[in-house]
Amino acid sequence: MNNEESGHKKSNKRRKKENGDKQFREKKKVLKGVIASLLLVDGEERRSENEVWNEIAQQEKTLFEATQMKEKDAMLGYYSGFQDYYDHGIVTDQKLKRKRSRAAAISAVSAAVSGVEFIDESGGVSNNEGVKGAENQQRRLWVRDRSKAWWDECNRPEFPEEDFRKCFRMGKGTFDFICEELNSVIAKEDTMLRAAIPVRQRVAVCVWRLATGDPLRLVSKRFGLGISTCHKLVLEVCSAIRTVLMPKYLQRPDEEKVKKIKEEFESVSGIPDVVGSMYTTHIPIIAPKVSVAAYFNRRHTERNQKTSYSITVQGVVDPKGIFTDVCIGWPGSMPDDQVLEKSALYQRANQGLIKGVWIVGNTGYPLMDWVLVPYTQQNLTWTQHAFNEKIGEIHEVAKDAFARLKGRWSCLRKRTEVKLMDLPVVLGACCVLHNICEMRGEVMDSELKFELVDDEMTPENPLRSGHCFCFVEGLGKIADCSTCKVSFHGNLINMGT
Predict the structure, then answer these.
(1) Stretch among 103-112, 201-210, 217-226, 479-488 having the lowest mean pLDDT
(2) What does the alpha-carbon distance between residue 413 and residue 409 come to, in Å, rounded to a whole number?
(3) What is the mean pLDDT of residues 194-210?
(4) Which residues contact 410 (CB under 8 A, 6 or more apart)?
(5) Residue 311 · residue 394 · CB < 8 Å
(6) How far is it, in rounded angstroms, from Cα 375 to Cα 496?
(7) What's the pLDDT at 51?
(8) Dist CA 472 CA 411 (whole Å)
(9) What is the pLDDT of residue 466?
(10) Backbone angles phi, psi at 264, to 5 degrees
């Protein structure tokens, strides 16, 4: 019986397992059908979406091609119209040129044959040369038209003298005098292309540039000329001033003038045999491309709080502040005594051409046989103080002259656009023009006064002579002495040790 029950249980288990497998196969079959249906539906949706996108892309492509065709047709039409207009303009211009040349030729032939004179618009009478002048005027059409209204106004005879003096730092008489002196050198002739710039305008461009220090682009607008033309005129006129006017108005005095200069300086200070007052100033420049360190100005850099470069101008003046000797162009890093050594004045002194006279300088110069300088040591006696005051009175003449030079010619106070190699010519021209203005009594406007600062450079060796010089008030002269005694009842002032 037990065997039967166990067999029955096994058969039941077998049937249950078979029924479960059958249900699993049916469910699996149903699931496969569902998945197949889903895949089919998804494929249909993707195909429909692709068809929609393809249709949209085709429409956009068709629209883009249509737009391109319209733009192409429009551009072709515009180009065709422009080409027709251009061809028509060329043909018209050629016709006009042929017509004008034909008319000019007929007029010239008629004038040459008949000898008839033409009357121009201004009422003047001219022959067939007027036709050539008209042709030349046509050939000048390529020149840029610039306004010359400002210069035309200044050049009128009715222009006020005071306004002219403010513009050019000199009166009309002095300006005309300079133009007459330079006329033979800077005058140019008219050419077939253009009329030459008048001498007065050439000089005015240069003087205005030196007087104001304005950039060339502003000078160009003032005078109605090109920038390069203005730059060329400035250098040409300055070179002419150096060649023509410097030998006449900046020269060493002759014996008669030396005697007069001695008397004037002695009347100012009481020191005899003084023939000049010497000073060295610095002109700011743009940093050069070579030898930059040589032109570096330490004192100006410290005062301006920015790197400064300069070149030097050493000058000797007479009692009226007129330059009798100049040395221009040495680098700004050189002290005054080294600049003096490089000058022609120093070479003349070494050759024995400066004897028995004195040139007064400041503490930047060394004491020499022909150079007087003030005392620099501390604890001076009252006689030494008195001597320094007398030296200072003479030296102030040179300092005032340089102050007027820089005040009158503002280009000396600004970093100029002129190249370093051309700058000595420009500075020399300023010195010559200064002399001419001083000689002709040109009074400088008080607004142009300028104060000199930071020009003195201390020498490395303040004593260049083995002699000792003393000013003996009783004798009225400066002489050598073998024993220097400061305490000589105030009559002996020690000039060396």
Answers:
(1) 479-488
(2) 8
(3) 94
(4) 210, 211, 212, 213
(5) no
(6) 9
(7) 85
(8) 44
(9) 35
(10) -70, -45
